[in-house]
Amino acid sequence: MRDFSANLRTFQLDALGAAIQRDIDAALYDGMAVGIRSGGETVYQQSFGFADRRTGRKLDGDDVFAILSFTKVFTALGIFQAIERGDLSLTTRVADVLPGFGANGKQNITIAQLMSHTGGMPFTLPGLTPEMQGDLRMTVDLACQIAPVNPPGEVVSYSAQVSYDVLGGVIEALDSHGRHYREIIADQIFRPLNMSHSAIGAHPDIASRRVPIVARNETPMNLALMARDAAMTETSELPGGGGYASLDDMLNFVAMLEAGGVLDSRYVVSPAALELARSNHTGLRPNNTLAAQREMRGLEPYPAYLGLGFFLRGEGLFPMPFGQFASAETYGSIGAGSMVFWCDPNRNLSAVFLSSGLMDQVDSHLRYQRLSDMVHAALEPQVKGAE
C-alpha cells in the first residue's frame, strides 16, 4: 500500500523508505514494518527487508511481531477499565488487592506508582527462572516476596517486567468472571478494536506469521529476550512484555488512542483516562535505569517523562525515539531494541514502527529518533485560513 494523503510530502516519505532500506542493507537490523496516520487516516503502510534474515523470509503486511513493552499500554488500559468500573483507584495500595504484596516494605506502594515506574521495583525479577517465565501467578507470588530497590515514590526507575506483571495480577484478581489476564485483554481490547492478529502469549493462530526475535546486537538483554520468545506458549502471560500484534492491528490501536478511547463506536476507555495517562507523572526526574548507559555515552541526566503506561516527548534535546521534531505532548511506547509507536495530538500525526533484528537499546532509540524526525518533516505546512 502506498497511498499518501495530500498533507504529507511524497518525496519525504520516499526518503524515509530509502533510509530504512539503507539501514537493513548495512545489517543494522533485519526488517521493518511502518505505518503512518495523518488526519485520522492511515496514509502510509510499507514493509522492508526480512522477517527472518537467517532463512531469507521476507517481511510482509500480515506478519506478527513480539511487541514487548507495547504490552504495558494494554495492561495500563486494563487498569483504567477497572477504575471506570469502580473496582479500584490510582491511589489504591496494591496490597489492598494482592495482600501478599505488602511484605518487605511494599505495603504502601500504590497502583499509580507501579504504572509510573516510581514504585521502587527492580528492572527484572530476582529469582525468576526460565521455567517460571510466563506463569503470571508464580511471577506475582515471587514479586510479593522481594523488597523495593528504591524508596517507593521517590526514584524513577523503569521496571521492564516486575511492576506491570504485578498490575496484570491486579487486573486478574479483580475480574468478576474469573478470566486469565490474557483473556481479559483479548475480550476488552483486542476484540473491540478488531485486532484479529494480536494475542497475549504465542497463540497458535499467529504461529505461521510470527516474526522471531533475533538479536542483531548480542547484548545480554537481547539474548535473554530471544530465548524467552522462543519459549513462549499459548498460555504465557507477561503483562510487561508478552504481547504480539501485526502492523494493521497496531494501527487500529493507535486510531483508538487518537479518537479518545473509541474506534468505530466501539468503546475501550474514556477520554478522561487517556488524558491522565499521557500526562507527565515523573516531573523532571531522570530514569535511573538508564544511568549507566547515559554515563557510557557522556550524556547528562534528562527527564524520564513517563505517564501512566506511556512514554512522553516532553521538552529538551536528548535521545528521544519519538523524534526531536515531535511536539511536547507526543506520547507512545517503546519496545526494547525493536519498535516504537507515537501519537502527536498537536499535529494529528501518528506512526508505528515494528522491526526485526534487536539492536542495542540506546542505538535503537537514536535510530527511531532519526526516522521519526523524517516522518514529522513530511507534514506539509498548514496555511492559515485554508479550508
Automatic annotation (TrEMBL):
Gene3D superfamilies: DD-peptidase/beta-lactamase superfamily (3.40.710.10)
Family matches, as InterPro entries: Beta-lactam-related (IPR001466), Beta-lactam/transpept-like (IPR012338), Diverse_Enzym_Activities (IPR050789)
UniProt domain Beta-lactamase-related: residue ranges: 29-360
PANTHER family per UniProt: BETA-LACTAMASE FAMILY PROTEIN (AFU_ORTHOLOGUE AFUA_5G07500) (PTHR43283:SF3), BETA-LACTAMASE-RELATED (PTHR43283)
Protein name as annotated: Beta-lactamase family protein
